[in-house]
User: Fold this.
Amino acid sequence: MHTYRWTRRIASALLSVGVLAAMATPAAAEQRRAETRISLTASPSASAVGQAVTLTATVSFAKSGTHVPTGLVYFGAVNRNRAVYLGNAAVTGCSLVTHKCHATRVTTALPAGRDVIGVVYGGNNYFAPSVGATYATVTMQQPPGPPGLTSATTGDGQVALQWSAPTTGGPVTSYNVYRSGTQGVQGPLLVSGVTGNTYTDISAANDSTYYYVVTAVNGVGPSSPSNELSAHPPSSSATACSAATPCVSPLVTSSDGSTSLQVTSDPSTGPQTLTLQVGGVPAMQCSLPESGSVVSEYHTSASDAGKVADYTVFGDAAAFADAFYAENGADVQGCYGSPEVFNGWSPDGSEGSSWQYGPYAYGPAPLDESTGLYEAFLGSCANHGGYQPCFVNISGEGSNTTQVHSPASASDPRFSH
Assistant:
């Protein structure tokens, strides 16, 4: 059934150039001509669109005295419902011993996909046109289109990448990931042969910026690069402390030098681990981008130990912080986020109020759905009788430090100028 359909479509391709009509002969002449059959091979059987494929037809003929076939062999192809005429080639190399001849046609015209190729020998005065169906199959692939790099999520010493599959081009067999230290420059190959749509770069160094692109690959070759995404794993530390012992972290500073963080945790009844990082986390709504600082996170695993975080900004960030506090009053200080409800300063909800310009009201912190944290400016510990979370402002030459006092939390609180 399928062979018949392919033969008819290939015949239609040959008829489109009048080949079969030219081969028609009167019945009496047909009886005087010896029979021929034809076979076909294609090399390679899988190739890229536009690359050359060699089609070799073998004409087998019955004995007709000392005569041998001459003339042309005609080549056609079918790809789905599309019929393509590929041209012709002269019969050569005929042997009266093997009763075989050959005709070779090299083509670059095969369309993408699975091509069924057929051939017909046109015959001459002594030999009839070939009879029977003959075909070969060649798969012509295209390289894939570019994938879409959708996310580059940072963690401690790692970057988790995710991408979408190409929507154009040939099928994908794997992906290659490239990493660069320079924006807009495709870096060296980081990993090849990734079969899924995710990869985690565990060789990324904290406090370094990387630029990633991904290519899709099949038997033809790689696609053009995806879009580029950057990632900056945060500066981080983890400090383990024994029971009944205060826990003090080292000082962690952001790569641009604008922000540093050091956290002290009170003694706990059991062992605790104090972790913190600067940068690499989503900004909170109450963050003020004009400050130039980097968001930090800190957390103790203890359930009964509060924390004191010294969050220091330098240079332009410090100047902004000093100016902001002077303009808005000492009772408005920094942006704090926690998974637990707390009281702080937030825009009062009146028309035109904003995190940057106020006016502010003291009360329950509003929830930022993008971070899952309740976020607000903290009040001064001196003015709120030690209520936590609260702050103590410590200004210095060229820097500004906010000492944040907070209770132990089940998740990471965040703080940002």
Summary: The longest strand covers residues 34-43. The first helix runs from residue 2 to 15.
